[in-house]
Amino acid sequence: VTCKHESRTSIMLRNLPNDYTLTMLLALLDAEGFSGRYDFAYLPVDFTRWAGFGYAFVNMVSHVDAQAAWRHFQGFNNWQVSSQKTCEVCWGDPLQGLAAHVERYRNSPVMHESVPDGCKPAMFNEGRRIAFPPPTKRIRAPRAKQPGHGRAAAEWTHDATANCLQQA
């Protein structure tokens, strides 16, 4: 990967299987040799279907690690679930770096207390999950994206919450 911006550390993994979870993504990163080489990961979840949108953001600890992850996962298709999808990698845009991701998500509805941990952005230090910095303002509950029906995150069903938690 040639890049004129040698400080980029954030990549976007696209074409992930929709039933991939954050836990599965983290296990994949670790199994493929990237344990301890990332400090942020987020796999957005559609709260109406309780499935991923098919992409994730990962911040690597260095530009060299980001390039290595890019090379490794571009064209990757050895998923833990049955899928014909082939991963595509691009630079995270507009967010680059851990600080930018923290700033973007710390006050986001996805960090609301009603959202299960397995569905939230996660931070890491030397391979261990660490607490996300606290919000700087009141966080509103996320809304499910259902046309014509806004359902508050506080209305999680037991089954949906259990699905997300079992993947955490």
From TrEMBL:
InterPro entries: Mei2-like_Rrm_C, Nucleotide-bd_a/b_plait_sf, RBD_domain_sf. Gene3D superfamilies: 3.30.70.330. GO terms for molecular function: nucleic acid binding. Residues 8-105 form the Mei2-like C-terminal RNA recognition motif domain. Pfam families: RRM_2. Signal peptide: none annotated. It comes from the Eukaryota. This is Mei2-like C-terminal RNA recognition motif domain-containing protein. It comes from Strombidinopsis acuminata. The lineage of its organism: Eukaryota, Sar, Alveolata, Ciliophora, Intramacronucleata.
